[in-house]
Amino acid sequence: MSHLDDLPSTPGKYKTDKVLHHHRYLRLSKLTLWASLFLALFLFYLLLSPPPSPSRRNLNDSSASSAAKYGGSHWEKQVRKSSRPRTPHNGLTVLVTGASGFVGTHVSIALRRRGDGVLGLDNFNRYYDPKLKRARQGLLERSGVFVVEGDINDVILLKKLFDVVLFTHVMHLAAQAGVRYAMQNPGSYVNSNIAGFVSLLEVAKSANPQPSIVWASSSSVYGLNSKVPFSEKDRTDQPASLYAATKKAGEGIAHTYNHIYGLSLTGLRFFTVYGPWGRPDMAYFFFTKDILKGKTITVFESPDKGSVARDFTYIDDIVKGCLGALDTAGKSTGSGGKKKGPAMFRIYNLGNTSPVPVTKLVTILEKLLKMKAKKKVMPLPRNGDVEFTHANITLAQAELGYKPSVDLEAGLKKFVKWYMGFYKKKSSW
Ligand SMILES: O=C(O)[C@H]1O[C@H](OP(=O)(O)OP(=O)(O)OC[C@H]2O[C@@H](n3ccc(=O)[nH]c3=O)[C@H](O)[C@@H]2O)[C@H](O)[C@@H](O)[C@@H]1O
């Protein structure tokens, strides 16, 4: 039925206007009725829903799911217990942010295993499947690590944690990771890697005593550099992605807090970390998934038709580097926000120092999975990826005792074994 059917059969001007006016009136009153109904429902909803927690300082839509869940004497007991080193007065008391993330889980367990006190903090955002993060949380709980559910932008929560526990160290791993996703959700990088980092440093600088902080920077800060291997002394002023730019900004921010407040700060430039319990957004992880499903994978090549390459670094080597950085971190020199002298400021590459072409990564996976990959080769898109990475690790070797020992084939073997076991058990996912 067209709107013309509404008109009377013998339309005279006056009559038509009158009828139209009547119809408009009817539509208007219907509209008013619906609007009032919606308004009433909305007011009813507002009345019933609890007031938002004043402690939420969360602009990140990806973490919006994580309502802060903390407070109360039982919660404080859990926080204290988890943070306590096995032997009192001997061992670190570490706050690990991003504890249910890939590196966070491994580092927390390693610290706990050797007797340090570890408290986890994680917002369980939905950047990738939160069920994997929950499974890692289960692993952490079984190792005696309690994970507080909250965001690093939640200053009130951070202050509360520092009130309850005198942390000697912070291992800051909470971040928005991933190079390519920065084009889809730039705000999440600013929110986590810049605003969140500043929130943490603000609280840490005012803590008394101030903790020493070790945090995750990234190999991506080397951006478009062509001189290899990448050394800490090289320029880092031509990032290729917003992700890289926020990590580079983090290094500048860290320097400021070291300079003004005497916070001891160590930045670790991780090089494409992989392994069991890894991140599903990374190529080695989703290549495995897609090869097993018989789905085509896209393999990027450089403009000269060469393979892009990465200095893939196995998680256990990274964990050793993180522990080395925590153990050698000097004390912060300020207290309650006042600097008393210069404090340590360090940056290290944590790579494997043997880059492998992505085509080789695929060949290894095919061998381990006993399946041929369906490959589509594509030129490297302009989405932030760089052509190659290669770490010079001399400094970390000398000062942290860092010595990577797992090659890509051995590391992927462990990853594939974990993957098969984990997803077989979770076949209903
Ligand atoms: O080293 C780092 O600092 C960074 O390492 C990884 O970033 P990336 O090396 O790009 O790791 P993947 O996303 O797993 O990519 C690995 C390689 O596979 C290639 N790739 C990726 C995706 C794809 O579909 N096809 C493909 O060939 C990429 O170009 C890259 O050369 C992490 O995702 C970052 O969070 C981290 O900071």
Automatic annotation (TrEMBL):
Gene Ontology MF annotations: UDP-glucuronate 4-epimerase activity
Topological category with respect to the lipid bilayer: Multi-pass membrane protein
Residue segments, region Disordered: 56-90
Superkingdom of origin organism: Eukaryota
Gene3D superfamilies with a match to the protein in the record: NAD(P)-binding Rossmann-like Domain
Cellular location(s): Golgi apparatus, Golgi stack membrane
Name of this chain's protein: UDP-glucuronate 4-epimerase
Provenance organism: Arabis alpina (Alpine rock-cress)
Biological classification of the source: Eukaryota, Viridiplantae, Streptophyta, Embryophyta, Tracheophyta
